[in-house]
Structure prediction request, 390 residues.
Amino acid sequence: MDFLKKAKEINKELIYIRRDFHKNPEVDFNLNRTVKKVKEFLEKEGIEYIQTSKNGICGIIRGKGDKTIGIRADMDALPMKDKKSCEYSSKVEGKMHACGHDVHTTILLGAAKILNSIKGELKGNVKLFFEPAEETTGGAAHMIEEGVLDNPKVDAIIGLHVEPNIEAGKIGIKRDVVNAASNPFNIKIIGKGGHGAYPHSTIDPVVISANVITALQDIVSREIPPTDPAVITIGSIHGGTAQNIIPDEVEIYGIMRTMTAEHREYVKRRLVEVVEGITHAMRGKCEINIEESYPCLYNDDNMVEILKDAAELTIRKENVIMLQKPNMGVESFAYFSMERPSAFYYLGIRNEKKGIVHPLHSNLFDVDEESIPVGVAIHCETVAKYLNMV
Prediction:
């Protein structure tokens, strides 16, 4: 089947759906309207589903076989103002689909429609994962915990993310590690406050904090191989009330990003050792909290080959870009990739002639909607190849 031709035939319907989502963004797990629209679409197409993870949805298309492949899309928007001037700009003040999740959801609905129409030809099943809260805590983890990868057991998973640095009509695929893991942290440095004119009678947590912040950068620059990406970012520091008062404590907030499980554990351990060592050496105390956030996203070699072959068949080899560098951003699809062989790719949406050039999480973000059938078709072709469709 020519999946791209089939996807273009329903693109008018898909654009309408995407624009409706874009005009009515919802955030985090609070996706009542979005979920209602997804359910209505699945019901209209005769696709069974269950609700999971508060406002997540797991649909299933049952073919004729035991293998099962999953396709994932995220549904939530961001808490930011839409500054675009077009008929489908956000109607909800302070909320905007600035990361393309409206497009991801639309593409999965389009793929579901086409695959369901040929389910009698599929040698296996297709599970449809509509994920909430990707931008916050990661609904994928909750969905997995509630059993979406079982009954029937999912054997492999694919997903995509729109990419404004790749031209519409093209995609990017990365082998091995694709996205970083993240660990937000906060540190409280506790000293002894006093008058700024008499620092010798205090234990200055501001000075201790300055030494801590500088030393933390040495973990990346001097302890992680320079060929391996890692980042420790201090995003916020708070302490004190006036120029001549040394405070009792300072709070530091930051995040670390790493590309391997080994480096993730190493940086976490060394952060604690460095902070405790410096603080104690300078007569202070500290409290450290490191959160477990998104893991690394890994692409499986075999799934990448299947996806690459499907994409080359759909949009020709010259439009499939093999990416060389990983992304330091995080992606909750990583939770799926830790559980099953996966392939995650980037869908080009850039079109300079249309003025579609703005980055993700920008108030002016938009997509070239001609990219929608490309994503739909590649999803469908990959599923067909994986399930060995006749």
Notes: The mean pLDDT is 97. The radius of gyration is 24 Å. Residues 181-290 form a domain with the Alpha-Beta Plaits fold (CATH 3.30.70.360). Residues 261-281 form the longest helix (21 residues).
